[in-house]
Structure formats: C-alpha cells, structure tokens
Amino acid sequence: DIYAPLWIEGTLRVEVSSNELADSAYTIEAQVVELITE
User: Where are the domains of the chain?
Assistant: First the structure.
C-alpha cells in the first residue's frame, strides 16, 4: 500500500532527482523504515 504511514530515519539531502514518475528536490538515504500500525 503506497499510502501506508511509514517512519523513516536516515540522511535527508537537498539533491535534485528526476524519473518518469516524479521530480524531487530532496532525497533520503534510509537506515530505518518501519510501518506504523497504531
């Protein structure tokens, strides 16, 4: 489910990224990704 809430910890960078789905000015190098189930 792409709309599920996630808790993400990692390094956030100001960096332009572009692909066929979206353009972004930020990227994150995730060390921890957890599904929030509360």
Answer: 6-35
